[in-house]
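Check out a protein:
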Amino acid sequence: MDRTERFYTIDRMMRARQGTTLREMMEEMEISRATIRRDLEYMRDRLAAPIVWDTENRCYRYDDQEAEGDRYALPGLWFNASEVHALLTMEHLLSSLQPGLLEPHIGPLRDRIRRLLDSGDHPVDEIARRIRVLHMAARQSDSEVFGAISHALLRRYQLRIEHLNRRNGERTARTVSPQRLAHYRDNWYLDAWCHLRGGLRSFAVDAIASAQVLETESAKNVSSDELEKVLGTGYGIFAGEHTHEAVLRFSPEAARWVSREKWHSRQRGHFEADGSFTLTLPYSQETELVM
Protein backbone atom coordinates (compact mmCIF):
# COMPACT_ATOMS: atom_id res chain seq x y z
CA MET A 1 0.00 0.00 0.00
CA ASP A 2 1.51 3.33 -1.05
CA ARG A 3 1.41 6.49 1.05
CA THR A 4 -1.56 7.98 -0.79
CA GLU A 5 -3.68 4.93 0.01
CA ARG A 6 -2.48 5.00 3.63
CA PHE A 7 -3.63 8.59 4.09
CA TYR A 8 -7.11 7.72 2.90
CA THR A 9 -7.17 4.59 5.05
CA ILE A 10 -6.17 6.55 8.16
CA ASP A 11 -8.83 9.14 7.38
CA ARG A 12 -11.48 6.42 6.94
CA MET A 13 -10.53 4.64 10.16
CA MET A 14 -10.66 7.83 12.21
CA ARG A 15 -14.12 8.68 10.92
CA ALA A 16 -15.62 5.19 11.08
CA ARG A 17 -14.48 4.40 14.61
CA GLN A 18 -14.34 7.86 16.18
CA GLY A 19 -10.66 7.21 16.58
CA THR A 20 -8.17 4.40 16.06
CA THR A 21 -5.05 3.00 17.69
CA LEU A 22 -1.55 2.51 16.34
CA ARG A 23 -2.03 -1.25 16.57
CA GLU A 24 -5.24 -1.16 14.53
CA MET A 25 -3.62 0.97 11.84
CA MET A 26 -0.53 -1.25 11.73
CA GLU A 27 -2.66 -4.37 11.29
CA GLU A 28 -5.01 -2.79 8.75
CA MET A 29 -2.22 -1.51 6.49
CA GLU A 30 0.48 -4.06 7.38
CA ILE A 31 3.15 -1.45 8.06
CA SER A 32 5.48 -0.61 10.92
CA ARG A 33 4.87 1.65 13.91
CA ALA A 34 7.53 4.07 12.62
CA THR A 35 5.77 4.38 9.25
CA ILE A 36 2.43 5.10 10.92
CA ARG A 37 4.01 7.81 13.08
CA ARG A 38 5.60 9.42 10.01
CA ASP A 39 2.25 9.37 8.19
CA LEU A 40 0.44 10.96 11.14
CA GLU A 41 3.11 13.63 11.42
CA TYR A 42 2.90 14.37 7.69
CA MET A 43 -0.89 14.62 7.82
CA ARG A 44 -0.71 17.06 10.74
CA ASP A 45 2.11 19.24 9.39
CA ARG A 46 1.53 19.20 5.64
CA LEU A 47 -2.15 18.42 5.23
CA ALA A 48 -3.39 20.38 8.26
CA ALA A 49 -5.23 17.32 9.60
CA PRO A 50 -6.50 18.04 13.18
CA ILE A 51 -5.25 14.72 14.56
CA VAL A 52 -5.10 14.59 18.36
CA TRP A 53 -4.21 11.92 20.93
CA ASP A 54 -7.20 11.03 23.09
CA THR A 55 -5.69 10.23 26.51
CA GLU A 56 -8.97 8.96 27.93
CA ASN A 57 -9.71 6.45 25.16
CA ARG A 58 -6.04 6.00 24.25
CA CYS A 59 -6.51 6.44 20.52
CA TYR A 60 -5.87 8.91 17.71
CA ARG A 61 -8.85 10.85 16.41
CA TYR A 62 -9.84 14.07 14.69
CA ASP A 63 -10.45 17.04 16.98
CA ASP A 64 -14.22 16.96 17.58
CA GLN A 65 -14.28 20.57 18.76
CA GLU A 66 -14.26 21.82 15.17
CA ALA A 67 -17.39 23.50 13.89
CA GLU A 68 -19.52 21.20 11.76
CA GLY A 69 -19.17 23.51 8.76
CA ASP A 70 -15.39 23.30 9.03
CA ARG A 71 -15.20 19.52 9.20
CA TYR A 72 -11.80 18.42 7.97
CA ALA A 73 -11.50 16.67 4.63
CA LEU A 74 -8.42 15.40 2.87
CA PRO A 75 -7.71 17.67 -0.09
CA GLY A 76 -7.59 16.10 -3.53
CA LEU A 77 -3.88 16.53 -3.95
CA TRP A 78 -2.45 13.39 -5.49
CA PHE A 79 -2.23 13.68 -9.21
CA ASN A 80 -1.50 11.58 -12.23
CA ALA A 81 0.63 12.98 -15.06
CA SER A 82 -2.22 14.74 -16.86
CA GLU A 83 -3.56 16.29 -13.65
CA VAL A 84 -0.14 17.68 -12.70
CA HIS A 85 0.19 19.17 -16.17
CA ALA A 86 -3.29 20.67 -15.96
CA LEU A 87 -2.57 22.33 -12.61
CA LEU A 88 0.81 23.60 -13.75
CA THR A 89 -0.74 24.95 -16.94
CA MET A 90 -3.46 26.69 -14.92
CA GLU A 91 -0.91 28.13 -12.50
CA HIS A 92 1.23 29.34 -15.41
CA LEU A 93 -1.74 30.83 -17.24
CA LEU A 94 -2.94 32.58 -14.10
CA SER A 95 0.52 34.11 -13.78
CA SER A 96 0.36 35.51 -17.31
CA LEU A 97 -3.32 36.38 -17.72
CA GLN A 98 -4.07 39.95 -18.72
CA PRO A 99 -5.09 42.01 -15.69
CA GLY A 100 -8.67 43.16 -15.77
CA LEU A 101 -11.96 42.45 -14.09
CA LEU A 102 -10.68 39.21 -12.49
CA GLU A 103 -7.34 40.58 -11.28
CA PRO A 104 -8.25 40.71 -7.54
CA HIS A 105 -9.09 36.99 -7.67
CA ILE A 106 -6.12 35.74 -9.68
CA GLY A 107 -3.53 36.12 -6.91
CA PRO A 108 -5.44 34.19 -4.22
CA LEU A 109 -6.45 31.47 -6.70
CA ARG A 110 -2.85 31.05 -7.84
CA ASP A 111 -1.75 30.75 -4.21
CA ARG A 112 -4.33 28.03 -3.57
CA ILE A 113 -3.15 26.04 -6.58
CA ARG A 114 0.45 26.31 -5.43
CA ARG A 115 -0.53 25.12 -1.95
CA LEU A 116 -2.30 22.11 -3.46
CA LEU A 117 0.76 21.23 -5.50
CA ASP A 118 3.12 21.87 -2.60
CA SER A 119 1.26 19.54 -0.28
CA GLY A 120 1.64 16.59 -2.63
CA ASP A 121 4.56 14.19 -2.85
CA HIS A 122 6.81 16.84 -4.44
CA PRO A 123 7.20 20.54 -3.51
CA VAL A 124 5.89 22.95 -6.13
CA ASP A 125 9.32 24.56 -6.56
CA GLU A 126 10.75 21.18 -7.47
CA ILE A 127 7.89 20.58 -9.91
CA ALA A 128 8.46 24.00 -11.47
CA ARG A 129 12.15 23.22 -11.98
CA ARG A 130 11.43 19.88 -13.61
CA ILE A 131 8.36 20.70 -15.70
CA ARG A 132 8.05 23.78 -17.89
CA VAL A 133 5.05 25.25 -19.69
CA LEU A 134 6.26 27.32 -22.63
CA HIS A 135 4.24 30.05 -24.34
CA MET A 136 4.60 31.07 -27.95
CA ALA A 137 4.06 34.30 -29.87
CA ALA A 138 2.20 36.13 -27.09
CA ARG A 139 1.31 39.74 -27.92
CA GLN A 140 0.81 42.36 -25.22
CA SER A 141 -2.69 43.74 -24.74
CA ASP A 142 -3.67 46.94 -22.99
CA SER A 143 -4.82 46.13 -19.44
CA GLU A 144 -7.48 48.86 -19.44
CA VAL A 145 -8.88 47.59 -22.73
CA PHE A 146 -8.95 44.04 -21.40
CA GLY A 147 -10.69 45.21 -18.22
CA ALA A 148 -13.35 47.11 -20.17
CA ILE A 149 -13.99 44.10 -22.42
CA SER A 150 -14.28 41.76 -19.42
CA HIS A 151 -16.69 44.11 -17.66
CA ALA A 152 -18.93 44.55 -20.69
CA LEU A 153 -18.82 40.84 -21.49
CA LEU A 154 -19.98 39.70 -18.06
CA ARG A 155 -22.40 42.57 -17.46
CA ARG A 156 -23.83 42.22 -20.99
CA TYR A 157 -23.20 45.78 -22.15
CA GLN A 158 -22.25 47.00 -25.60
CA LEU A 159 -18.72 48.25 -26.28
CA ARG A 160 -17.43 51.13 -28.34
CA ILE A 161 -14.03 50.04 -29.67
CA GLU A 162 -11.34 51.42 -31.95
CA HIS A 163 -9.94 48.49 -33.91
CA LEU A 164 -6.67 48.38 -35.86
CA ASN A 165 -6.67 46.55 -39.19
CA ARG A 166 -3.15 45.12 -39.38
CA ARG A 167 -3.35 44.57 -43.13
CA ASN A 168 -3.80 48.22 -44.08
CA GLY A 169 -3.08 50.03 -40.80
CA GLU A 170 -6.53 51.64 -40.70
CA ARG A 171 -8.37 52.23 -37.42
CA THR A 172 -12.12 51.74 -37.39
CA ALA A 173 -14.51 52.86 -34.66
CA ARG A 174 -17.36 50.44 -34.18
CA THR A 175 -19.92 49.32 -31.63
CA VAL A 176 -19.96 45.64 -30.71
CA SER A 177 -21.91 43.31 -28.47
CA PRO A 178 -19.30 41.05 -26.79
CA GLN A 179 -20.17 37.34 -26.77
CA ARG A 180 -17.07 35.57 -25.41
CA LEU A 181 -13.30 35.83 -24.94
CA ALA A 182 -11.10 33.16 -26.48
CA HIS A 183 -7.52 32.41 -25.44
CA TYR A 184 -5.76 30.95 -28.48
CA ARG A 185 -2.01 30.39 -28.90
CA ASP A 186 -1.29 32.64 -25.91
CA ASN A 187 -3.32 35.57 -27.24
CA TRP A 188 -6.81 36.85 -26.46
CA TYR A 189 -9.59 37.25 -29.02
CA LEU A 190 -13.02 38.83 -28.60
CA ASP A 191 -15.92 37.17 -30.38
CA ALA A 192 -18.59 39.82 -30.80
CA TRP A 193 -21.57 40.94 -32.83
CA CYS A 194 -20.38 43.90 -34.89
CA HIS A 195 -23.18 46.46 -35.24
CA LEU A 196 -21.22 48.25 -37.99
CA ARG A 197 -20.96 45.16 -40.21
CA GLY A 198 -24.14 43.46 -39.00
CA GLY A 199 -22.53 40.12 -38.22
CA LEU A 200 -20.28 38.10 -35.94
CA ARG A 201 -16.58 38.94 -35.94
CA SER A 202 -13.45 37.95 -33.99
CA PHE A 203 -11.14 40.76 -32.87
CA ALA A 204 -7.60 40.31 -31.55
CA VAL A 205 -7.66 42.10 -28.19
CA ASP A 206 -4.14 43.47 -28.72
CA ALA A 207 -5.44 45.15 -31.92
CA ILE A 208 -8.11 47.06 -29.98
CA ALA A 209 -6.65 50.50 -29.25
CA SER A 210 -9.46 51.63 -26.96
CA ALA A 211 -12.67 50.25 -25.48
CA GLN A 212 -15.52 52.14 -23.85
CA VAL A 213 -18.32 50.36 -22.00
CA LEU A 214 -21.78 51.60 -23.03
CA GLU A 215 -23.67 50.89 -19.81
CA THR A 216 -26.91 52.32 -21.20
CA GLU A 217 -26.92 49.86 -24.12
CA SER A 218 -27.63 46.17 -23.55
CA ALA A 219 -25.58 43.74 -25.60
CA LYS A 220 -27.21 41.71 -28.33
CA ASN A 221 -27.18 38.04 -27.35
CA VAL A 222 -26.19 35.41 -29.90
CA SER A 223 -26.90 31.75 -29.22
CA SER A 224 -24.07 29.31 -28.64
CA ASP A 225 -25.21 27.33 -31.68
CA GLU A 226 -24.92 30.39 -33.90
CA LEU A 227 -21.51 31.26 -32.47
CA GLU A 228 -20.24 27.76 -33.21
CA LYS A 229 -21.80 27.78 -36.66
CA VAL A 230 -20.19 31.05 -37.69
CA LEU A 231 -16.98 31.14 -35.66
CA GLY A 232 -16.44 27.61 -34.41
CA THR A 233 -16.38 25.47 -37.54
CA GLY A 234 -12.88 25.93 -38.85
CA TYR A 235 -9.59 25.09 -37.26
CA GLY A 236 -8.10 27.76 -35.05
CA ILE A 237 -9.09 31.32 -34.33
CA PHE A 238 -9.92 32.04 -37.97
CA ALA A 239 -12.93 29.74 -37.71
CA GLY A 240 -15.96 30.52 -39.78
CA GLU A 241 -19.03 29.09 -41.43
CA HIS A 242 -17.41 29.01 -44.87
CA THR A 243 -14.61 26.51 -44.39
CA HIS A 244 -12.37 24.54 -46.69
CA GLU A 245 -10.91 21.09 -46.23
CA ALA A 246 -7.17 20.59 -46.00
CA VAL A 247 -5.53 17.27 -46.83
CA LEU A 248 -2.07 17.00 -45.30
CA ARG A 249 0.32 14.11 -45.87
CA PHE A 250 3.11 13.42 -43.37
CA SER A 251 6.20 11.33 -43.94
CA PRO A 252 6.51 7.89 -42.33
CA GLU A 253 9.03 9.39 -39.88
CA ALA A 254 6.51 11.98 -38.66
CA ALA A 255 3.42 9.78 -39.01
CA ARG A 256 3.79 8.01 -35.69
CA TRP A 257 3.54 11.32 -33.80
CA VAL A 258 1.02 13.12 -36.00
CA SER A 259 -1.39 10.18 -35.91
CA ARG A 260 -1.73 10.59 -32.15
CA GLU A 261 -2.28 14.38 -32.15
CA LYS A 262 -5.71 15.99 -31.86
CA TRP A 263 -5.84 19.15 -33.97
CA HIS A 264 -9.55 19.47 -34.60
CA SER A 265 -12.74 17.80 -33.39
CA ARG A 266 -13.68 16.88 -36.97
CA GLN A 267 -10.33 15.68 -38.25
CA ARG A 268 -9.92 12.35 -40.06
CA GLY A 269 -6.75 10.41 -40.62
CA HIS A 270 -5.38 7.16 -41.98
CA PHE A 271 -2.06 5.48 -42.72
CA GLU A 272 -0.96 4.91 -46.30
CA ALA A 273 0.68 1.75 -47.61
CA ASP A 274 4.13 3.38 -47.50
CA GLY A 275 3.75 4.26 -43.80
CA SER A 276 2.91 7.93 -44.35
CA PHE A 277 -0.12 9.50 -42.67
CA THR A 278 -2.87 11.49 -44.39
CA LEU A 279 -4.77 13.98 -42.22
CA THR A 280 -7.95 15.74 -43.34
CA LEU A 281 -9.39 18.68 -41.38
CA PRO A 282 -11.47 21.84 -41.94
CA TYR A 283 -9.99 25.35 -41.95
CA SER A 284 -11.02 28.90 -42.83
CA GLN A 285 -7.72 30.61 -43.65
CA GLU A 286 -4.38 29.18 -44.72
CA THR A 287 -2.73 30.98 -41.78
CA GLU A 288 -4.28 28.41 -39.45
CA LEU A 289 -2.28 25.61 -41.05
CA VAL A 290 1.10 27.26 -40.41
CA MET A 291 2.70 25.85 -37.27
Q: What stands out?
A: The mean pLDDT is 81. The radius of gyration is 27 Å. The CA atoms of residues 51 and 88 lie 30 Å apart.
